[in-house]
Amino acid sequence: MNLPEYWEKWARTLQQNHITGFVITLLEGASPVRMILSQTLFGVSPFFGTDQQASFRAFAETLDDSQQSQNFASFLKNLETK
């Protein structure tokens, strides 16, 4: 699964809900919370439609992988500075 293809959509959603800063903090340093959240997303994703399910699973994979989490946090920071 190509995770960065979801980043634009996620970034828009985060900006619309004014939680980008919170998510950056979560991505950069809250490893135990990331793990719990990722497992929760894996667990609830089957209850949603195919598109949402794929997005939830991709976000869960991002949270599980510390390098991907850092990359997405950097992506979000770059968007905020533009």
Relative strand content: under 5%
Helicity, as a percent range: over 70%
**How many strand segments?**
0
Can you summarize the main beta sheet?
Answer: none
Note the run of SSEs as H and E.
HHHHH
Span of the ends, CA to CA: 28 Å
Name the overall outline.
globular
In DSSP terms (H or I, runs of 4 or more residues), the helix count works out at 5
Q: Helix/strand/pairing class, anyone? A: mainly alpha
* Uncertain ranges: none
Radius of gyration: 12 Å
Averaging pLDDT over every residue, what do you get?
Answer: 89
Domain module tally: 1
Short description:
By secondary structure, the protein is mainly alpha-helical.
Can you put this structure into words, describing what you see?
The chain is an all-alpha fold and 82 residues long. The protein has one domain. The chain has 5 helices and no strands. Helix 4 crosses helix 5. The longest helix has 16 residues. It is globular, with a radius of gyration of 12 Å. The mean pLDDT is 89.
List keywords for this structure.
about 80 residues; mainly alpha; 5 helices
Write the layout of secondary structure elements.
Blueprint: H1 4-16, H2 20-29, H3 31-44, H4 50-64, H5 66-81
Helix pairs in contact: 2-5, 3-4, 4-5
